[in-house]
Amino acid sequence: MGNIKVDLRILKTRKAIKESFLKLIQTKGYERITVQDIANEAVINRNTFYLHYVDKPDLMEKLCQESVEKLNVCLSMEIDDIHEADRGVFIAILRNMFEIIEDNIVFFRVMLTQNCHPNFSAHLKEALKTFILSGIGDNKHDKKIKIGIEYIISGLVGVICLWIVNPEDYLVDEIIDQLSEIHFKNVLDLLKNM
User: Fold this and answer.
1) Three-class SS string for 76-130?
2) Three-state DSSP class for 51?
3) Whole-angstrom Cα distance, residue 125 to residue 190?
4) First CA to last CA across the chain, in angstroms?
């Protein structure tokens, strides 16, 4: 009884709006897009758009929040103590993260490479930092930890950008293997020195 069903027409309309919006960003750029452009591309009227979103910035913000929430769900695998995490768990988390990104690759490619939402990479970094910092208790404000985490997360987001621009050049399994080789040891070393 707790599940709320969303009307299939609503889901289809939101999907059409999202796809149209992303297509238009790639062809016209974010700043030049109007709500009417989005409605025309999605084959809906403006009033239908306004039933779902307040305006273009609201659409952008909701799409960004939705994507970061999907990543938060995949990152929040049950780990009681980050010190006890092994490389297998780390690899599973990376694999889940790349699968979520791959399922929404057009969105991530547009957001991270078109400079249409400069805060999206910050949202992405924040989601990753929150996950890593959730297991370290009161040391979240330690300067050494903040610098180390920022370095690791920035590198990870850079690799994600590299992959989404040229997914055919980089196999996800190879990326995950190399990231787990580099980052797992770095994260553990950073946390051991707390």
Assistant:
1) CCCCCCHHHCCHHHHHHHHHHHHHHHHHCHHHHHHHHHCCCCCCHHHHHHHHHHH
2) helix
3) 18
4) 46
Q: What is the secondary structure of 6-31 as a DSSP string? A: PPHHHHHHHHHHHHHHHHHHHHH-GG
Kindly state the average pLDDT of the residues 113-129. 75
**Given the structure tokens 């969303």, which residue do they identify?**
6
Instruction: Give the contacts of 181 (CB within 8 A, at least 6 positions apart).
Output: none
Identify which has the larger pLDDT, 102 or 144: 102
What is the residue type of 178? Q
Query: Angle 92-85-79 (CA atoms, 0-180°, nearest 5)?
Result: 80
Question: Once rounded to an integer, what is the mean pLDDT over residues 10-38?
Answer: 93
